[in-house]
């Protein structure tokens, strides 16, 4: 049952290193057994072998109330095999973050509702853009100097953009995400497709499903769980017609 889930988040100063450990299942999160793969890229030289150094530097040197990282959380189609999902991840990461510093992880926890694996991708990245200038950890996260870039920090991609421009970027990013998933599904010979648009934009007169969460699901009876699953399947069947 391919369905589109693409959540874009941001993390403020002081939260990046812990979140990186969470997605990589390190430290206190190491007991979780749902990690499929993890990696990083586009890091500065001083963090090329250890992305934790990058996030710790951001937590320490980013301005107060500034976002140290942004993140894409993307559901991966269940119809794809492990290798097909890996190919899709390899396509999604550069499309989502470009050449910005990033760390990613693929998790596949078992669904509390259906008992199936729920594979999804986490890509956390810095909005600080490379410009070819070598900077120390402290300088990298300092304020950008337009007249003398070598004296300031790396410029943020979102800097100077108004709310409308940022909204349009989010819409385009979600569209690209859906297109890459559908291309992967088509390549795999699957008929299922995902759609990044809202239900209203798709012409579907239905209230969006509320996220249940593991605690609420655990409190449900087997009949209630079956009812929710059946409703989801019916919706996906009608959408495919």
UniProtKB/TrEMBL annotation:
Keywords: Conjugation. It comes from the Bacteria. Residues 29-216 form the MobA/MobL protein domain. Belongs to the MobA/MobL family. This is MobA/MobL family protein.
